Amino acid sequence: MALATITNLHKSFGENTVLDGIDLQIEKGEIVVILGPSGSGKSTLLRCLNFLETPELGVIDIAGQSVDAATSHTKDILALRRHTAFVFQNYALFKNKTALGNITEALTVVKGMAAPVAEGIAMDILKSVGLADRRDAWPSELSGGQQQRIGIGRAMALDADLMLFDEPTSALDPEKVYEVLDLMKQLARQKRTMIIVTHEIPFAREVADRIIFMDGGKIIEQGMPEQVLDAPQDSRTQTFLRQVLS
Amino acid sequence: MTEFDFSFAMGLLPQLLDALPTTLGMTLLATVLALGLGLCLALSQIFDVKGLSRFTDFYISFFRGTPLLVQLFLFYYGLPQIFPAMTSISAFEAVTLALALHFASYMAEIIRAAILGIDRSQMEACLSVGMDRLTAMRRIILPQASRIALPGLMNSFIDLLKSTSLAFTLGVTEIMSRAQLEAASSFNFLESYLVLALVYWMLVIIMTWVQKLTERRLGEAY
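ok -> structure tokens follow
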């Protein structure tokens, strides 16, 4: 059985339809990369999965927690969110917390861990993202790449069933992109279940089990990386790839 | 024209300091109450609590829209006519409550604006790690908003301290009423009110100094 099942998801902003009936299944341990032109709805899809945006219609089921958008309750949405972790394009680190505090915050406040236990976990994570020496730094003292590695660390600490990445490298200076991608490859090797919205095509080819191409709020085509990237069937996919690869 | 009477001025100071606890008591009590109420009002608007946010609009409109002195008189002389239980309220309590209700309306607006000034991605980050909105407010949003709100809240705090001088109209023996009493019985008006002004000024200078320290502490993360 799939880890996550999305059924008939619809979302619009005013007159503008952004998601036009998305159906999607994600297997446990699968790494799915979503590609598409800006405005295609890929970020909105990701943000609907944990209800940062509220879809008008559709059912989202993650690890057995099902939420129907039409009849959603705050309690169910909270439970659904706790099966997910999210990495933001602009990092969105807690500005009033240190690097360590950003990772321990949810462990103590949401998961109810004792502070020393949470700090132990957080230090292990800081080591694995290569920032153990920056444990007491404020977000404002960290570079973009370092902030995003903490952002990923914060998501890792939740040990969630499904990790969502919303253009994690788009706000970074080009020379800092690799340090975040390297970290994500490390996660990929651990077989975490991930959905990644990105424009990094070589990265997508390397880590993705499946690539989804979206346009106009719909899934246009999907398949193995070589299938979608090297032999795209739909003209919209072909046009998009020609533009980003040229 | 008479000379400035220094010895009278020096003699008045201990008398004013004698009444100072009353002024400070009203100030601190009213500030704590106003902050608490202001925070509740601000949150009811931010979360758009049904029914409550309309009450909040009305509340803020009334207390910002009418003079404090009028509110004091309404509270102390007017309301006991309808609520007999309020006849037993002391002038000190009436002033403290009226100041709290009045300044809560200003503080609510300052706090609301500060919360709205926090980038919404901070709330989204809280939700994404599984916090509910109230926890997010308490742990992440309000600590950041407090830094933005501090200068405005401090203005209200200073304004509130100075407004306790209106309490003399209800017969509370605070520093204003003590100075007025001494001035009237000695005809040393200049000395009395100058010493009084200096006492208020010194208090505000101390508060400003505390504000600077607090700003530095709240600002260390940024």
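Residues 74 and 178 of chain B are 24 Å apart (CA to CA).
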